Amino acid sequence: MDRNDAKSTVKEIEAAGEALPSHFIRNIIAEDLAAGKNQERVHTRFPPEPNGYLHIGHAKSICLNFGLAAEFDGKCNLRFDDTNPSKEDVEYVESIKEDVRWLGFDWAGREYYASDYFEQLYQFAIQLIEAGKAFVCDLNADEMREYRGTLTEPGKNSPYRGRSVDENLDLFQRMRAGEFADGSRTLRAKIDMASPNINLRDPVMYRVLRATHHRTGDKWCIYPTYDFAHGQSDSIEGITHSICTLEFEDHRPLYDWYLDQLGIHHPQQIEFARLNLTHTVLSKRKLLQLVQQKHVIGWDDPRMPTLAGIRRRGYTPEAIRIFCERIGVAKRNSTVDIAMLEHCLREDLNKRARRVMAVLRPIKVVLENYPEGRVEELEAVNNPEDASMGTRKVPFSRELYIERDDFREEPPKGFFRLSPGKEVRLRYAYIIKCIGVVKDPGTGAVTELRCTYDPETRSGSPQAQRKVKATIHWVSAEHALSAEARLYDHLFTKEDPDDVPEGVDWLANFNAKSLEVIKEARVEPFLVNAKKSELYQFERLGYFCVDPIDSAAGRLVFNRAVTLRDSWVRTEKSAKAGKRA
Ligand code: ATP
Ligand code: MG
């Protein structure tokens, strides 16, 4: 299977023996097909508004819409819902296309824009005016709010509701011609100001707005609302199942009303619960604020839940698709533990990432009994999960670096790594023993470890069996390359970023320690040719991605995508144990 061919994510997971829960949308489509509905066609769409970058929540919607279409031999359109020119931009259009493609989906040339339908939508509006179902209203925004009523009180009819068809046609044409000021007039549907559903209280269909549109330029000074554009765009494209998030449930009667009044093809709107993740925000407005106020370096900051951000961090499309499949599709909102997303990445990278050794916080080790100038090429396994990835040579010499954390001058109980007088195994190499330390005379800090190695214990040799309690990673000081490593933590300290005392802004929960930059890490020489975006496991430290932007030959930069510690498996285990108890 092609690495980016997402069609068979479901089959891929099932082939691995994992039983996937079916979900109500899949069931609805299967039933519709069985009943011969829509001439047995399945046609969905993913309808982003190009007013920001896509995030992992959108990935759920993308996987659902494109995934279902593929599963049922249908089609899925990419439709830009571009009816609000003041917030939209081509930069976003381009990023959205890149992200959808990267996730592994193909809209096969069906790239559409609500703005392509502006003329048709205008004609639909005329049709409703002629049928006495729409009127031009002169109330301003404040007055309209007053007339709308509340959840408990009905609204009042607009004084302009009784205008004749001819007057409405004339005024609406003049709205289009630019005769009226922004906000001075609207076109409204004539439904029911007493409806318990506020969306049906004569909703606005068109507003006067002088804003340059990223596609239609200054051609229009009236723009349709989302509600008037969305269903009709679905209809024009022959969509069969219009899948959206729960906040549109109350809009469905209006979606249906427009299509019924116009008497055009009527897709079925189906709502599902949006994805929420702990320790992060999935709202374009909030993500935009993080970018604009420079809390992060941009939409593609590796801490961001945007697809551009997690891609730069080292997430793979496969990990995201499997995550989206596993979280399922529900009708009730809930929040998914971000540890589950991390778990899916770890599982994917465990299969594909080449292992290498790197030392993030180096301390020098000198092997006193190892000959000066000698270099051995030791054999290291590239991926214990995949023998076909082979082995490589790692240089070993008298001076090495190990992780500062792997040494304790006074080891606490249960610390089995290196300490004075104690032994440890160096991965793929020898057992060494610490026989002394060198200290900075000023600070007393340990600056170097003096050790001996046991030449009989080279990995793979007959005498290598001698047991020591720990194995640590290392690099040869002379051969290692310098590198920058960027370590990330959650963007927000609290599980729910909105969990703040009254009057305090959600940004108070921003994790000031979400980025740690290590300038002087050391990595094994194999990485000299590491390419942008390549993924590696640094043994014992985590999975790292070569930063696609800042890394260059001679100036390597690695982003830690995820650590090796799997808190998700632990959480799941303890949940199971809890159930048993
Ligand atoms: P936001 O509320 O952050 O502005 P949005 O829903 O307005 O996002 P759109 O561009 O309109 O953003 O979204 C495109 C599609 O993606 C819509 O069908 C929307 O329902 C879906 N979507 C957006 N956020 C999520 C989410 N968190 N989980 C699942 N689907 C989502
Ligand atoms: Mg939206």
Keywords:
alpha/beta, 7-stranded mixed sheet, 28% helix, disordered N terminus, binds adenosine-5'-triphosphate
Q: Any chance you could write out the topology, listing elements then pairs?
A:
Blueprint: H1 9-15, H2 24-34, E1 43-46, H3 56-71, E2 75-80, H4 90-103, E3 111-113, H5 118-130, E4 134-137, H6 141-148, H7 165-177, E5 186-189, E6 204-208, E7 222-224, H8 226-236, E8 241-245, H9 252-262, E9 268-272, E10 275-277, H10 284-292, H11 307-313, H12 317-327, E11 334-336, H13 338-352, E12 354-356, E13 358-359, E14 362-367, E15 376-381, E16 391-396, E17 399-403, E18 423-426, E19 431-439, E20 446-454, E21 471-472, E22 474-476, E23 481-488, E24 515-523, E25 535-538, E26 542-546, E27 556-562, H14 567-580
Parallel strand pairs: 1-2, 2-3, 8-9, 10-11, 12-25, 14-20, 18-21, 23-27
Antiparallel strand pairs: 4-5, 5-6, 6-7, 13-24, 14-17, 15-16, 17-22, 18-19, 19-20, 23-24, 25-26, 26-27
Helix pairs in contact: 3-12, 8-9, 12-13
The chain binds adenosine-5'-triphosphate and magnesium ion.
Residues 47-49, 57-58, 60-61, 244-245, 274-275, 282-285 line the site of adenosine-5'-triphosphate.
Can you characterise this structure?
The chain is an alpha/beta fold and 581 residues long. Helices cover 28% and strands 23% of the residues. The protein is built from 14 helices and 27 strands. A seven-stranded mixed sheet has the order 12-25-26-27-23-24-13, covered by helices on one side. The protein has a seven-stranded mixed sheet with strand order 21-18-19-20-14-17-22, with no helix packed on it. It has a four-stranded antiparallel sheet with strand order 4-5-6-7. Strand 8, helix 9 and strand 9 form a beta-alpha-beta unit. Helix 3 crosses helix 12 and helix 8 crosses helix 9. The longest helix has 16 residues. The two termini are 43 Å apart. Bound molecules: adenosine-5'-triphosphate and magnesium ion. Adenosine-5'-triphosphate (ATP) binds next to helix 3, strand 8 and helix 10.
